[in-house]
Known about the structure:
Layout: H1 2-11, H2 21-37, H3 42-57, H4 67-82, E1 98-103, H5 110-123, E2 128-133, H6 140-151, E3 154-156, H7 167-181, E4 185-190, H8 198-211, E5 215-221, H9 227-238, E6 243-247, H10 256-265, E7 269-273, E8 281-283, H11 286-294, H12 299-309, H13 312-323, H14 330-343, H15 347-352, H16 357-364, H17 368-379, H18 383-387, H19 394-404, H20 408-430
Parallel strand pairs: 1-4, 1-5, 2-3, 2-4, 5-6, 6-7
Antiparallel strand pairs: 7-8
Amino acid sequence: SLSDRLSATFSSLRGKGRLSEADISATVAEIRRALLDADVAVPAVRAFTAAVRERAASAEVSSSLNPAQQIVKIVHEQLIEILGGASRELNLAKRPPTVIMLAGLQGAGKTTLAGKLGSWLKEQGHAPLLVASDLQRPNAVNQLEVVGRQAGVSVWAPERGNGVGDPVQVARSGVEHAREKLYDVVVVDTAGRLGVDAEMMQQAADIRDAVSPDEILFVLDAMIGQDAVTTAQAFADGVGFTGVVLSKLDGDARGGAALSVRTVTGAPVLFASTGEKLRDFERFHPDRMASRILDMGDVLTLIEQAEKAFDEDQAADLANKMAGDGDFTLQDFLQQMQQLKKLGPMKKMLEMLPGMGQMREQLENFDESEVTRIEAMVQSMTPAERSNPKIINGSRRSRIARGSGTTVTEINGLLERFEQAKTMMRSMAASGGRGMPGMPGA
Length: 442
Ligand code: GDP
Ligand code: MG
């Protein structure tokens, strides 16, 4: 999947000190392939990778984000941007009723959406009317009446028993009815076909011309993959639309459609449909979609928390120490462990972030109660021992063990891990002290 591919790309950047030209090129190439494989349209891919490349090249070297995290952050922000930034409001008519027409293939979720929109508009204080202009399928009118009842919203339907009605006439009379009865928003449900065809497109265009909609919402099944772009393009050419509703986002669609449709048609995604029930409906949030495409939960929140948890000043302090006389003490080691303890509750989230792979492995073996024991051990040492553990001989080890309620084996283990940590800190200092500090020797 797209997310898997991106994850693999990001984890290959693990442990790098900074983003090199070659890293960026390789990463961008991989992102391009991953997006193409995920059925994202070529122009969308091109726009996206160009933007990521430019931003990665000019990225500030961050003291608290490693290169993988930096790329994740850039990709995430760029996804939000290309998905439309902030979502816009529905365009309401200056003189009611506002007319919203729904268009899209059969099965896209138009009728379901009509009910959701009706219910949502009612909550917003509007008086909506649903209009049944899909007379193609025998049960279509009935289906709209059912969702209207569920939503507690009135439905305008053609009179029964007159044979095949005229969907254009129904739409026109529906809007007239709304004007008379003071409904302020009209949602016109229309017919679709399984595939795009000229007759259906013409019918939709005729309905459009009859009611002059303030919004034409193109309903797109997020799960149709590569066909999303051609379908969207066909509707853009045949009827035109002002906004997009992505439906079936509760499935495992990863959002390739969202990325493409926005870039190819320029129309913003306004709403997301996430299930069959009325309440499975929300304003479209580009930031959530970006996270979904990356499949990593709320990446930004995660990064912010990681940044907070490891206080930058302390990091700089530690790096300076290493660059100077190499004076890394047990007290510093303890401090690192305490930092890691703060990250403990984030363990689950860190597992979702590929860039945090190294830290994740360490956290897996990390036991919070261990920090408490290490605190006790370090506190049982003299200040001289803390800054130079080499002076701790055998008899001191058993004294410290007794004083801290631990064993000599544990003291030995701690001192061994401290030595490993010290070596690791030296190499970190040599590389400029950048990146999240790992838990040494875990
Ligand atoms: P229309 O032909 O465009 O009017 O599509 P419908 O509204 O009749 O929906 C087609 C099918 O998709 C129905 O079985 C709906 O219950 C289902 N459906 C619509 N929207 C969603 C959604 O967001 N998620 C899921 N899981 N199913 C949906
Ligand atoms: Mg329908």
